[in-house]
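As a warm-up, study this chain.
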Amino acid sequence: MKVRLKNFIVLIVLCMFVTGCYLIRGNINDVKVQELGSYAFGLLHGDSGVISQFKYDGEEIRIAYYVEGRAEGVVSEFAWFAFVDGLPQPTQLEFESGEIIRQIDYMHQFGLEFGERLEFYIVFTPVSGENGETVDFIVASLLQPDYLPESRDEPIFGVFHTLGARFPEEILINDRIQNTLSNYTNIQLIEVPQNLIDEEHSFSLEDVSRLKWSPRIEILPAEADLQINYEDLIVANNGYVQIQLLLYGGPEAVSRITFFVNHQPVAVNGVDFIEIQMESGQMALVQVELTLTELNDFNSLYAIVAMPNIDHIVPGIFKTQTLLLVSQ
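Now compare it with the structure written out below.
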């Protein structure tokens, strides 16, 4: 067992009272006050401040877990998903009664009233890890995952799809894993342009300090320059999407980036994920192609970067703002 460098409050209080604005890449749009809900999730038998370790010996891993609604008078709607070794992990939920087993999926959704609590096992076979290696197991959540803007004229998600995450647990790999996932590594790092540094300073010195632990990760239109203000809308033509990924800041660590459309991981540049070894003062600007099928008229698009096996001062998982992906 390892003691965490910093305890993480498992109770996720996500915007119980949204006080009149959404922040959209520096632009503020007024909206009415709205109560969204709060919730908690975590290990049933974990010790506070201690990293739990699980073992993979060739059989499915079973982790006792719970979720609970914490907002009075509100149904708290959220979803969570798991990452192993920095990669999306499909899981199955098996309830204590044994009568309900949810389908294997990357994301599981809940709508819980105040005090409503569900206990179950997370059941899965790790998607990544070498025999004898210890890898991270991270559970992250999204607030109101079903939300989509009503119009392409206002492609605003605001606080919806906000990411919350636990600090990682560990999995000791004691058997061979059939890992068929592929990565894209043909990426060159460049110095962070001065205009982006100036933008961070224009917010506050606190934002610049935050970049030591939390990277800036953005999805940009393919034709966008490196400015912070632009429309949060991406258009797919016959399922084909060209965009850019910007990443800088955060720990000097391996970053594994997965793109999600409608909360499901999708192939990027013909592979499963992007892998970047980040360096201090350097930035990655990656040209990205997505080829998608069975799109709705309106879809959600975001990317998640996970930094496996870093010192656990921060959870090590971060998300872009969600963008509206319109199919035409």
